[in-house]
Amino acid sequence: MLLLTLALANDAEYRGSDSDMIELRERLRLLDETQRREESKWERAVEHTWTLDIYGCPSNLEASITEEVMLAFAPDIGDSITSILFVETTYFREHVSSANTVAFAHYSNIVAVKKPTCSTPVQSYDLRTFLAHEIAHVRTFNIHNYQDLFPREGRSQTGDKRTLRQKWASLDSCSVTYVGDDWKKLTTTPDGLVRKYGAKTWMEDVATFVEVTNLIAYHAKLDDRALDRLHDAYQGNAQHKKCLQNKLEKANAFRFLDDETADLVREVWASSTPTSSALKTKLQSLRETIHARNREALKDR
Ligand SMILES: [Zn+2]
Hints:
Number of domains: 2
Structural class: alpha/beta
Radius of gyration: 19 Å
Bound molecules: zinc ion
Strand order of the largest sheet: 1-4-5-3-2
Strand content: 5-15%
Number of strands: 5
Distance between the termini: 42 Å
Low-confidence stretches: 1-8
Mean pLDDT: 88
């Protein structure tokens, strides 16, 4: 599993100025217009279904992966995204300072993914994890920005008024210390986290957690890898396991994951054979069910 961990680079919340962000989006939009880039049917489907714009240069495969990942999330979560940008490195580097950054989310609900060049697609597994991760950030921004205005969002019937951040920080058995950029110096993943990168900030903790547990965002051909990764992330002491169980409950309560996916994650964690054909069949049929359900809900609006 070491290679897999190394292959996953870090992302960032957007740290540039807002005008820089708008400039990047406008630049890509103009490029699309002037080059009269032809959109694939998947790209049009995503734009139409979730009323958003895709700019930059997604390949047909990347656009179809985007559609699949979006379908893993509840319709209103997809609706909250305004733009998805597929940005070739040259432009990306002008707007994002860190060379290691592979994707980012901006609080105006824009998601951007870096491509080596327009004709070089992002590796399929990576793209799925990047998108799931960035959509989790957008969801977090929205919950957090608007939680005070919509007091019922994600709160319990008992009138618990704490925010997602407060709830996440005070989870039972979770004594994670967030260390900012010092996460790079960590030699092992601290207890209560699924990836070292989660030690950077509480928001990266949430996003890495969603990225690893949202199995529905993946694909049949990648299930072995995703199931192994999910299972490996859970192996550790009792405190670590209890913390992840609590995070799963919260991620589900705040609708980063649906009930069925959360149940399946528990089953994978409890299993000694996470990639058994029985679990894979279950996962694949659940994925079909959830995609179909979300597709239906999206049609009804
Ligand atoms: Zn992130």
